[in-house]
Design a protein that fits this description.
By secondary structure, this protein is of the alpha/beta class. The protein has nine helices and 15 strands.
Length: 336
């Protein structure tokens, strides 16, 4: 085992867009587990847009990080030492352990990675929280019906790549919005979207008129801003808008309203925000079905991997810049 625990902490609160100087790479003692706790060695850590909100003091659904705190994240790791009978050394687990090489957690806060899941990193995305976000958001809130047109923004990202494929499995027409030719190619060739719109090159409103001639029945919103404003203008009567994220707004000191709420009256539409953590009763079903769809090839995915814990801030900044293709992950170590 290593002699020290390397970790990434919050050095300064970002003013607008984060920079690498807002983070610090520190060394600390490797913690020791007490009764009912487990020491976990990180193999992979997740990089996600929600982490930006945790760096701000603005009111949100979770407590903000304090300066000096380890950056919050989900981690896939292996158990090094256990003082709880539910875990033994070598077990693969997922938990909210942060950007650090070693962490102690209460045993009840960890989930065992399902045996046979290959690669195990799927537990951090398709067969984990991002997959469940797509599954619960689309099926429980969007309630798609066969023949519906489902539009997904940030469609080549961790959640978007799964949402479009779930829409297809539900018998819907899937339209993805992303930025850049490589992502557009992924939408069509890898994820099976029926139409793909490049918001960096295309007139989104005009492209939507062609891709969704009968209007948008379900909109899975990951970005807000101008893209969402264009989609709202193409809603069908009775549309459902799922507000999952607003990545275009996270680095603004003053977020901009996406559209006038009167549009909900015009289209008799319903708009609902959600957090996947409010639906734990849906996890078991979702994980089982997502794992089966990955295994039989019904769902495909892409991982965008950065090597080395020290490069996690760079991966995070790239994510906010839209540079990732698929789920952004940082590989910290190989399994022992």
């Amino acid at each position: 085992m290593a002699e020290a625990n390397r970790r990434i902490t919050l050095a300064a609160r970002p003013a607008g867009f984060p920079t690498e100087s807002d983070f610090a790479l520190e060394e600390a003692e490797i913690p020791e587990p007490e009764a009912g706790e487990v020491l976990v060695r990180a193999l992979w850590v997740s990089v996600d847009p929600y982490q930006r909100g945790r760096m701000s003091e603005a009111r949100s659904y979770a407590r903000p990080l304090e300066l000096g705190d380890v950056i919050t994240s989900q981690t896939l790791g292996e158990v090094v030492e256990s003082r709880d009978p539910r875990f033994t050394p070598g077990d693969l687990v997922v938990g909210q352990l942060g950007w650090q090489e070693y962490a102690v957690a209460r045993a009840g806060t960890l989930q065992v990675v399902p045996e046979g899941l290959e690669p195990p990193s799927l537990a951090l995305h398709v067969v984990g929280m991002t997959g469940l976000t797509a599954y619960i958001g689309l099926l429980d809130i969007g309630r798609p019906r066969p023949g519906d047109t489902v539009v997904v923004s940030a469609a080549a990202g961790a959640v978007g790549q799964i949402t479009g494929q779930l829409a297809k499995l539900a018998g819907c027409r899937a339209v993805g919005i992303a930025g850049g030719p490589e992502k557009i190619r992924d939408l069509r060739e890898l994820y099976g979207y029926d139409a793909a719109i490049d918001y960096k090159q295309d007139d989104v409103s005009a492209a939507l008129r062609e891709a969704a001639p009968n209007g948008v029945d379900v909109y899975f919103d990951n970005v807000g801003g101008d893209v969402s404003r264009a989609v709202v203008g193409r809603l069908a009567v009775g549309a459902r808008i799922i507000v999952c994220g607003q990545i275009s707004q996270y680095n603004r000191e003053r977020p901009e309203p996406t559209f006038h709420p009167g549009a909900l009256i015009v289209f008799r539409a319903r708009m609902e925000g959600f957090l996947v953590t409010d639906y734990p009763h849906r996890y078991a079903e979702g994980v089982q079905r997502l794992a089966r769809w990955v295994a039989d090839g019904s769902i495909r995915y892409r991982e965008d991997v950065t090597e080395g814990l020290e490069h996690a801030p760079r991966a995070f900044i790239g994510l906010l810049n839209g540079e990732n293709r698929g789920k952004a992950l940082v590989k910290v170590a190989d399994r022992s």
